[in-house]
Design goal:
18 strands, binds flavin-adenine dinucleotide
Length: 406
Amino acid sequence: MYKHDIIIIGGGPSGLSTALHLARDFPQLTPRILILEKARYPRPKLCAGGLVIDAEIILQQLGLDVSEVPHVDAERIHFDFEARGLNIRVPKRHVLRVIRRDEFDNWLARKTESRGIEIREGITVKNIIADGDCVIVETDQGNFRAQVVVGADGSNGITRRCLLPKAEVHTARVLEVITPTDPHRQSVPPPPNPTNWLVNKHPEFSSSYLGAARRGHAYFDFFPVQANIAGYVWDFPTQVNGEAMRCWGIYDTNILASEKRPQLKELLAKEMSRFGFDLNLYEIKGHPIRWFSPTNEMSVPRVLLVGDAAGADPFLGEGISIALGYGRLAAREIGEAFQRNEFSFNGYRRRVLGSALGQALIARWIVAHIVYLFKWKWFQILIWRILKPFVVLLAWIFILNWGKRM
Ligand SMILES: Cc1cc2nc3c(=O)[nH]c(=O)nc-3n(C[C@H](O)[C@H](O)[C@H](O)COP(=O)(O)OP(=O)(O)OC[C@H]3O[C@@H](n4cnc5c(N)ncnc54)[C@H](O)[C@@H]3O)c2cc1C
């Protein structure tokens, strides 16, 4: 049996952020942290890769410069209903930075290691048993014993399933497709070559149809709400292996799951066909997102959940900045627990809810229920087209910008 003080299960943004914050704020704990990651970096992760300003703020505060990762910047985000609505721009900067998760997570993992934190890749956690004195983590490569475990293992994570098997789970369904910017060029470039990612930072867009018309813009269209899909279709600029591409997808919180609904794919195909893309020609992938509800359980004695395991944004399914934010809160909780030598973590959920991140998550949970339950056309037009300035102001105050207040 291997012995460690802090085992973090999962090396995505939430697990890596927990480790980075522990190392920064409680450096004496650094050699006592072990991250167990089942995959090997750079590993695929289905995600549109949109980083909002809060993600960049948290990374900056950790002394990390995310512009080192290949990215495409969107200067405007459009929130539309049936192709018309409001758009958001931040003066003198991008409003959304789009990365690919294999590259971003690999970069973050290497930064984490460079700060003295051990990551063991290719180890899958199979079971977790928490008793009063320690936590046993059973893996496909032997058992580990820890004082504290962090469940950073995503929406389907084993930590929550083992330790909170009866907890209610709110899960969104999400489909994603990557296409070229031009519908007439149907191929997708080969998978990224990890050795050339530093040189391919700013891919130039071709003057293709989509490249020219929507270059540098990210779109969310809430038209599916009328069809009882409690979510939206997105279209982001992105890059794969340095080549300009588009990332399309559809998100459904499942809030309207009791109603009759079309297949998700149908609505995504409809949106893509407006721009000449035939969805059937591309590989379509799906993954659930566990979303935040104020009642979500987030800890048991000696074990904390972070990131998707605790709950991502229910409104848009945005989870990277949220995962980074949970990491900061969990690190504080763990550091103070070691100082007090008391590991019940029974105030963790309360402190998450009371934090700037928690307030933003509660606001998004309320907004999701308003926007998706009041699904009538006139209401959607009212929000996205008529009340524009009011909606932008509320979003800026309550939904974004929590990173600075953490
Ligand atoms: C289609 C799609 C599009 C999205 N688009 C965006 C977007 O544009 N912007 C945004 O902010 N968010 C987006 N999200 C959400 C975002 O991807 C997640 O919120 C984010 O990845 C959560 O990070 P995490 O660290 O909690 O979990 P993850 O990123 O899922 O990381 C969990 C890690 O745990 C590891 N793991 C799992 N089980 C085990 C085990 N048993 N043993 C060891 N290791 C294990 C996994 O390999 C993985 O590395 C999207 C999600 C989906 C599905």
